[in-house]
Predict the structure of Membrane protein insertase YidC.
Amino acid sequence: MDRNQATGLILFAAVILIYSIFFASGPEIDPSEETIAVENTVTPNQGSIEEFPPIQKEETDSLSEDKINRYGVLATLTLGKEEIVTLENDVIKVDVSTKGGTIKNVELKEYKTWEGKPLLLLDEESSSMSQMLETTKGPVLLEDFYFFPELTSETSEDGKQIQVLTLQTGTESGTLLHRFELVEGSYQVKKSFEINDYQGVFTQNHLSISWNDVARAHEQDLAESRRKTEVNYYTAEGSYENLGVGDSPEAESPTEAVKWIGFSQRFFTAGIIADQNFSNVNVAQSTPTDSAFVRQMEASFDVPLTEGKADYTFYFGPDRYKVLKQVTEGFEKNVDMGYFFVSWVNKYIIVNLFAFLEKYFSNYGVIIILIVLIIKLALSPLTYKSYIGMAKMRVIKPEIDELKEKYGEDPTKMQQEQMKLFSQLGVSPVAGCLPLLFQMPFLFAMFFFFPNSIELRQESFLWANDLSTYDEFIKLPFTIPFYGSHVSLFTLLMTISQIVYTHFNNQLTTATGPMKNLGYIMPVMFMFILNSYPAGLSFYYFVSNMVTFGQQALIKLFVDDEKIRQKVEANKVKNANKKKSKFQQRLEDAMKAADANRKK
């Protein structure tokens, strides 16, 4: 019998004696509970942690009858003193409490708030996480128990340092253990919780977790931050879901198992990932009235206990697509890359271009210019074909005008004759449009990429202090509906360049009437829409317009309208006796039938 065991027996006998003297006339208590409630802690079975400090007699005396009845064998675990232990690597710092083994604060060391303060992704004043177990006495919270910490360091197989925090507590009936692992350079904190022994104490095979976070405003533009902050989750079947970005309170209780849950902000995500799957998931969110906070987010779920052990992983870090993609399946969806028909541009082209150029250039304005040049160069064959198609339509404009004079009052006949003319001259009316259509995914992709690009966060260029938000060139003393109370110079330059481009483009095409005027209306509409969007987006569109001017001016030097006209005339002679294709014949027949029905 060692010293701790002897001390335990002495204290055990003393407490029973005192209890029998002072509480003999009280309510009857089951003898097994009486024994369990006052037992002393002993060295745990794990052997990896020093023996628990012995609980003093004065402390066991402080256990109330309510605590004994409520916690039973676990009652002595509620005695202790809270400490904060810090896990830290080169990118994050995580504060863990020895009271319950909960994470109190998470600081992202590489980033600051827009005010230049340390960026706390989670803090104990606005976020909380409770962990509950069901026992024969009812539900108990791990936050009611005190654990003894040990902080050690290990080396991974690839030579990286791993900080390991072990929190352990227990009694003669068993032990409870938390283990946290933080690898060098990682935003992921691996977590495990383990129950050893305690036979017949715990009644369910899962750990219930409830997580609440009132996310603080880290960015200057509160409205945009709220639009980009939401609760996301990913089901075991591979379905990504979110609660949306509206201001109205929302809640969901998915019926299927969930692989991970993310509290996703505009540029950062706090997430929890199951080793297996979470069950009984409930998620909710609402918008606080306090402007210091962006969104209130809540999640409750059960983590399975397999042989008394629950494993899961936290992610606390930036919304960088490549980083998130390495976390777990579907986790990269915390970054909105746009609809499926444009997301491929961002995922496979823009993200990789940014990553490549970041190695050689530190100025993101320069990077944006280079990306425009690279994309425009890659798409230059389409630009050339588009210009040639519009040039052909321009040189046959006299023939089209003749048809309008002759058949202007009969739209069906006019269309039929135009199709015949195009066939004879070897000209396609969509030849100038299709190449532009193929370029549209790149233009729309940027509309999603720049507002969600953490790469641009707090990066300045020219007069813009932060390319991830609007450049407030002029602050207005009033608010213009649908526009705002500021003037974004990059958006204004983009609008002017688009109007000039439209005017130049109209000289190259045969557009008339409403279609011609639409080209002037759209830039003005986008001026209102993009005025409060990131400066980087407007700058990209402005540079894109300027490069397009240069491309068209260069093409014009090498394209002679006379030569195009000669080619068109040659096609006219060549196709003079050409028979109509089956498609053309069917199209004409369909038009004639439609015209006949209309006249009826």
In short: The chain has 17 helices and 20 strands. The mean pLDDT is 82. Residues 260 and 479 are 42 Å apart (CA to CA). The longest helix spans residues 535-558.
